[in-house]
Amino acid sequence: MDIVFIKQLQVDTVIGVYDWEKTIQQPLFLDLSLTNDQRSAAAADDIKLTLDYAVIAEKVTQLITAQPIELIETVAERVAQMLLAEFATNKVEVTVTKPGAVPKAQTVGVHIVRSRN
Ligand SMILES: Nc1nc2c(c(=O)[nH]1)N=C([C@H](O)[C@@H](O)CO)CN2
Question: Fewest C-beta atoms under 10 Å: which of 30, 82, 90, 115?
């Protein structure tokens, strides 16, 4: 199956479990992968027949920044469920990283795979 992907989408938002994190914005970076079939879009050269990554990026950013969230697990799950509900895909992979959260690590994060029931 084919995939539309977005790598390292930066979303600045209120994220974290500690009190000091609830008053600042921190960057999250997302890698998104949405399975679809691109053959008809390619044959017709028509954006309406595929998944528009610009629209996906905008909706994901709006979802994450709409309200404060504590866990990056929550971010990943909400993004995955939104993508499955609103876009023509049966399987999504979402990676959320939070650089700087562990000073001695390059980055930390979560990766989930979700499919339509
Ligand atoms: N598995 C997780 N562990 C931690 C998270 C998280 O979202 N998922 N968050 C924090 C704090 O917010 C941390 O990032 C502050 O630096 C700690 N562990």
Answer: 115
Structural domains in the chain, sorted by start: 2-115 (3.30.1130.10)
- Please give the number of the atom of ligand 1 that sits closest to the Cα of 16: 12
**Please, which residues have CB within 8 angstroms of residue 106's CB and are 6 or more apart in sequence?**
99
pLDDT (tens digit per residue) in 21-51: 999 999 999 999 999 999 999 999 999 999 9
Q: What is the pLDDT of residue 117?
A: 77
ipTM: 0.97
- Could you give the CA distance from residue 101 to residue 44 in angstroms, rounded to a whole number? 45
To test ligand 1's pocket by mutation, which of 97, 98, 110, 112 has the most ligand atoms within 8 angstroms of CB?
A: 98
How remote is the CA of residue 72 from the centroid of ligand 1, in Å?
A: 7
pTM: 0.97
